[in-house]
Amino acid sequence: MTASAPRARPTRTRHVVLWLTVAVYMITYMDRVAISAAVPSIQKEFGFSTVTIGWILAAFQLSYAMFQIPGGWLGDRFGPRRALSGVVVWWSIFTAATAFTWSAASMIVCRFLFGMGEAGAFPIATRSLSRWMLPSERGWAQGVTHAGSRLGGALTPVIAVALIAAFGWRGPFIIFALIGVVWAVVWFWYYRDSPAEHRFVNEPERELIAGALGRRSGPGRGSVPWKQILTAPQMWILAAMYACYGYSIGIYLSWFPKYLVDAHGFTLAKMGLYASLPLLAGVLGDIAGGWSSDLIVKRTGNLKMGRRIVAIVGFIVAGSMIMLAVNQTDPETGVAFFCLAVFGLELTVGVSWAVALDIGDEYAGSVSAVMNTAGNLGATVSAAATGYLVTLYGWSTAFGVLAGLAAVAAFLFLWIDASRRVYRGAEAVAAPA
User: Fold this and answer.
1) Strand partners, 179
2) Could you tell me how many helices (H) and strands (E) the chain has, helices first?
3) pTM for the full predicted model
């Protein structure tokens, strides 16, 4: 009897897919945060008031929120390969177009059209991972992808300030747009909508993925069960929680650089460095949140508690640290507490998006789109309302709102159960790790 040949080890094509997704998350935040670093220069050139800047920032957030569900539908209906390539090219065009705006109105229109494209990024990217990542890898995968977004956001003020110094405020928008187009070409060439379609996936990896997901890893696209998704109470609890998160992170992404200049008199160069620090802390929070959630799930087998504990702790840290940050007279100490606040806030992100995968499964793009719509409605309110709050009551009040929202979000997560799907037609209980 001849000995059987040793079984080949599974390839790791799914990890290449993951890191390509991390890259596009970085690009989304580079493109959206560039304008925050450019705000002082834009105000100097055009003479825009703080309230006008608020509406320019809100234009992106509004369209970004409005087109989350259509973006998620694109991914579920046509597949992430085509859909994500298309939306990246779309928003890259309007990233570059921002450099050619000439008034507040033209900038508002351009930012609105830019937001239409970026709206599809996270829902479609979530859908792109739903057929590739094992359930036991989902928390970590969502953590590392969102860490990529925060890393992009953290690096952007430093990079943008350097580019502004060299080429003027328009330079970053054109350069970042070119990066997006290059990524779209690479994604379309490499990615496939399922492991079964990918030539670099060997049979052991196909079997590993299909066995872990409990279904055939083929295309499987079909009609989205919107009625079941939109009538599920858990869907709206998840959405409300994420609206609280969205309002909070919106301030750090849109207003924090201006806060450092106005409240503490930072120079443009110093602002670029210190505005990056809380988002760098957020990178660590993203990774730690997803990793620790998956670890709890692996050790306990309890998906509900594994997601819930990490998110609640994160919101408690975020709310308590923000109150310490706004009451510091020393700006460097204040920034340190802001770093801890963003770290806590970002502990919740990988968990939230892992929940969208857990309860959405085949329709994770649509479920995550509903969640992210709520989050970005919160960010829209944050972008516009902060201009008024700062003008009328000052920065302490604007940031103080975040502590209350963190408490609300922590309470809402007590009612989120990641083990319960939001639609019928799949097993009622999501697969444990």
Assistant:
1) none
2) 17, 0
3) 0.71
